[in-house]
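Quick question about two entries, pasted in order.
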Amino acid sequence: MSEIADIPIFLHVGKVQQEPDWSNTKTTHEYHELIIVIDGRMAVTGRDREIHTLEAGDAAIYPAHVYHREKSDPAHPVLSYYIAFSGHMPYDAISINRHSPDVLRPLATLLYGQHLDNAPAEVMNSFTVLLLAVFHRHVDTHSTIPMYVHIADHFMHKHLPEPLKLEDIARAAQMSKFHFLRSYKRDTGSTPFEKLNELRCQEGIALLQYTSLSNKEIAIRTGFADSCHFTKKIKTYSGKTPTELRKKPVQ
């Protein structure tokens, strides 16, 4: 059996030309996503905050439950295919392939064409298997973060507005409360609630920079008690006030 193990199942494919100033806030999916850059350039940041620059011919996989943020190069707006699929994933972090442009791009183009022609599921699955087999030959990975951490972080991010308890997060990770607390601290260097505060602050900063919501509205959406609590936490986390963050994005 191959490294891919369980045969992946194709879910959907798209082709997107982003605007020069496009970026997304840190996000995660229930499915895996393969990105293949056709033209242009974009920066991708993962949970470890390492920045990966993807150019024409490069490809990346975002495993399910793994956070990522993307930003198009203003001078060279990114054009890319995205392919969503389910199944086993041997990586627990963003993975990059820079070595197979002459194979991945044509295969992705064929897959997209088959999608437009309403090809049957077995054809789409076969193309997806082939794309992933090529991707896995020359892949760069950097993280060994356990999957339960990604699942816990995804759960916290999904439930930011709620008054989460430790047992709620541990249950999502399918672990006992105290075993989860010890393991999380050992594997990440922080407690779950320190991470929850980080996620709330990151989401709050993104809403400050990319929406016109009031501080009070953002505080409610991100789980802070009120706008004063929100302001205090944001200042402690970023060194800037919400007003300053609205004027200039955090580098």
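Here is the second entry:
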Amino acid sequence: MATATRLPKIKFCGLTRSEDVRAAIAHGADAIGLNFYPPSPRYVTPETARGLAEIGAQRDAMGSPLLRVGVFVNASPFEVDQVLSVCPLDCIQLHGDETPDWLTESRAFPSMQSIAFIKALPWRDCEEDRERVISWTSMADDRFLGFLVDVYDPIQRGGTGKTARWDLLVPRPQEFQSLPVLLAGGLTTENIGQAIAIAKPDGVDVASGIEIRPGVKDPLKMRAIGDIARQLLAG
């Protein structure tokens, strides 16, 4: 597994095809997201994901690590361990209602002793969200890379194409000061420059904004977003 030392700057999420993994690599992705949430139109089985993750590992062999992120929604540590027994991953993205106790429980599984974690959550500048961020920050250990801020959607859990409230991250809320932030939520070739300029995230996560249809990516959109994000997130 690749060693995760920081949150990725460019993450392309919801990949389902080998040609899309290769395009993500070619167009500058630091990470790919493989979705293990069955209701999602971008869901992949652990067996399919294994083939995609192995393509990502070929880039590791060339000395340029690609973070292979598994996206889970309210899955137990046991269920994640079952996926890891089939598909190699470098990072777990928790995109449901998980509490920080999830991190503690995960330590019981050898597969997750050193694997990296990202917690996805909405930011509506309300007390509920503030308390959630504070609770996760207080439990963070060296496996925890940071937060992914997405649009609130209790059903689809990401990849909605809905635009996030970037302005609510300006200035950076105090609750996020100690950990990096990956921005998601309706990012496209048309608005990603504005989103980065306003919210000043540490990285971006794009799913629907690089698609022809759910689960089928557009290499031209990947290239355009990769070029813009790489330039604006440099440094």
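Reply: The first strand starts at residue 10 and ends at 13. Residues 46-61 form the longest helix (16 residues). Hope that helps.
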